[in-house]
Amino acid sequence: MHGGEFLTIEEAAKTLGVSTRHARRLADSGALGRVARGLIDRSTVDRYLQSQRQGRTRTWAEHTAWAAVAMLAGQDADWLGATQSSRLRRTLRELTEVQDLLTRMRDRARLHTFDAHRAAIPRLRSIVATSSTRSLGIAHTIGDGIDGYIDAGEVDAVVRTLGLRASMNGAVTLRVTEFDVDRVRELVGSPVVAALDAATSTDPRMRGAGRRVLADVLDAYR
Question: Where in this chain does the record put each Helix-turn-helix domain (predicted)?
Fold first, then answer.
């Protein structure tokens, strides 16, 4: 067994209760953070576990997940058809467990962590769309890090241009989305996105605050 910071792909599979092949697929998709050949960032395994639920709850497609964000935030999701919208509103009204919502929302973005030179942080802040923990009642302490959403079509160029390095515990978290980035930027400012981001954090205080806000959001939506 390795130390606390990383796992072999076999150890990650055992922790998740899945096959090694499935763990490799999760790493290939970006759901788990690969830091070297055959090595997985333990923190991304923890985050994935936080977003999981025992049972058969299915994740929503990316455009559906962002539509659910919009509806919960009191905004229109006009990229869905009338039938899809009606079905999604009904599902949201019927949800009673925060964990169900987190599981369904899991594929709204793929999470990657990086180390970055201090000089790259201001440029990253001008590129990514970041949520704020202030809406959760938690002081917003940025420090030298950043956590935000970025268009999948931009991420490779940003990583290359700014010299980002994949890291187990990097201060830069990029949530890579293939959905319309302009829509994402409109929605990321809502407490719903801040709560979703916080609710799968490995920090217990952040996780608890995010889940409390999501519970209130679901109650209000019903």
Answer: 6-53
User: If you average pLDDT over residues 11-36, what whole number do you get?
Assistant: 82
DSSP string of 12-80, one letter each residue: HHHHHTS-HHHHHHHHHHTSS-EEETTEEEHHHHHHHHHT--SS-PPPPPHHHHHHHHHHHTT---TTS
pLDDT digits (tens, 9 = 90+) for 82-98: 999 999 999 999 998 89
Amino acid at 70: A
Q: Cα 103 from chain centroid?
A: 11
Domain boundaries, the chain: 1-50
3-state secondary structure of 207: helix
Structure tokens given for 114: 């990086």
What is the tens place of the pLDDT at every residue in 130-171? 988 887 877 655 456 788 999 999 999 999 999 998 876 778
pLDDT of res. 51? 65
Q: How far apart are CA 71 and CA 65, in angstroms?
A: 10
Amino acid at 176: V
Residue with tokens 């990383």: 6
How far apart are alpha carbons 112 and 97 in whole angstroms?
27
